[in-house]
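Practice set, problem 2.
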Amino acid sequence: MAKINFGGVDENVVTREEFTLEHAREVLKDEVIAVIGYGVQGPGQSMNLRDNGFNVIIGQRKGKTYDKAVADGWVPGETLFEIEEACERATIIQFLVSDAAQIAVWPTVKKHLTAGKALYFSHGFGITYSDRTGIVPPKDVDVIMVAPKGSGTSLRRLFLQGKGINSSFAVYQDATGRALERTLALGIGVGSGYLFETDFKREVYSDLTGERGTLMGAIQGILLAQYETLREHGHSPSEAFNETVEELTQSLMPLFAEKGMDWMYANCSTTAQRGALDWMGPFHDATKPVFEKLYQSVASGNEAQISIDANSKPGYREGLEKELKALRDSELWRTGAAVRALRPGK
């Protein structure tokens, strides 16, 4: 494990050059990896593991998601099973159903966690909030985590491009003495670009804050606020969208991703540079209290309880679809659909 300096702080990092795919295959050569759940992370992680030469099976209840697994090449009775049978066959159980669903499925998984097996998560939710989820693993199994920093769709797409997405890793419980080795092998197997060390609590705190913050919640709120301001001052929908979203995602973010914010600034006009430097302070000062309030809501368990309660309500999926439809049907994102359709090459 190498020490890499991140902004003046040394952190433990594992790269694919240090922990090779060949070594990962050797570590897991006698293991049967059961991916339980074929929703968000399940398809990407399982197909990457399969393509990398690991012994992988899927555990999924019959229905639309089961049919999707069949379409992806998983064979009923050979590599695709009901959840209980997959857990029984496995030596490593990748518990990748949604956070709320884990509560319902946990009794089935737990009874097949015999001594020496490994219980794998891609999110620290179930373990960190065990007082709310009831997920308390037996003491004689490894409890480990690899958490890709992106969706399963992105994990799979980058894998097929010969790239990788960064992942965090953690060992919560080492019953076999092999927990770390198993974790790293799985991290390389699922297609991680590199792996950085964390623990279950820090992972879930940062993840819930990020999703509600700059990754999803805050970005939508900020984009909508700017779009509305431009529209209210007489700008057309196409102009407001291009200045709010299109230039951000198609021009500036690729520069930002390539070499950092300073490099992106350096490749913009001097007028843009001056304005950005002058206004980043007021935006920071306005939003920092909101992020602190958000973090405290995560740390207290309030956000976890909201998620658990919402997902357990009858009709939650129908209500969620209504909320997403309202977002989709808003002027901002209807304009976005029209702008995307005009991109060259479409």
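Problem 2, part (b): a different protein.
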Amino acid sequence: MFLNDNLKIFSGTGNPKLSEAVCKYLKMPIGGANVDKFPDGEKAIKLEDDVRGRDCFVIQSTCDPVDENLMELLIYLDCLKRASAERITAVIPYFGYARQDRKAEGRVPITAKLVANLLTKAGADRVLTIDLHAQQLQGFFDIPVDHLTGGLVLGRYFKEKKIPNLTIVSPDVGNMKIAAKYAGYLGGELAIVHKKRVSGSEVEASEIIGKVEGRNILMCDDIIATAGTICSAASLVKQRGALSIYVGATHGVFAGPALERLDLAPIDEIVVTDTIPLTKRSKELSIIKVLSISGMLGEAIKRIHRDESISSLFTNL
């Protein structure tokens, strides 16, 4: 075993393959637990390993089905707390409800804050997550939050590709800082697309600041949900004379019409990480490539367990 017996890592059902890869990196088994359902759909969890006085981590992405995976995580945390675990870390590679982080209009909730409160109340002593939709969500928690970035994995991949005549395009104004960091890391030029949101799932790209004609394009974001922003931006830069178009994102949510849009868009390659497992339909789209963040997560878990610094893992590009 890579680490001592005081460390226990458990897996939710949201992304079991990622949990297996993390434990493989750490050369240790996944903690024993039975996750079952009652006939009426209620979740039931029973730990099969002794966790009294141990440092416990639960890996669970709160992806689709979001509410079911979130409830399972809360039950897991409560189970560990009542079994007298010494410290409990909720490892949430993809944090659902992160986009509901403010009151954009009247009579709406701030669900990201609600989820933060639920996790703390259920028993989490700290949270380990990757690329929250808005970094200020870390302040929603009254417990420590370790916020890693998938950009370390994505950036390394695109640097190894050595794409010539590269321009990093921010698909919207809000993504400018991320695009600028990629441009500095990869040595490319920078361009920005101005977009107008038509509806909750549809956007319209209208103008580009910067040169894209005769250039290879890389667009990077934290999440691809309905793919409206990415596809609209890709179509615009292609119309303006761009050559190859690459897209990188930490979280491949691919909700609603996303896959149909991406299939029709002038995109040569879409690179995401395994924070969210691909659906069968996603796997059929040949332009999608998945990179694993298991090594980064495993290293973070090891350092947290040993009370070592993990700042090098969440330092941006």
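Answer key, part (b): The mean pLDDT is 93. Residues 66-82 form the longest helix (17 residues).
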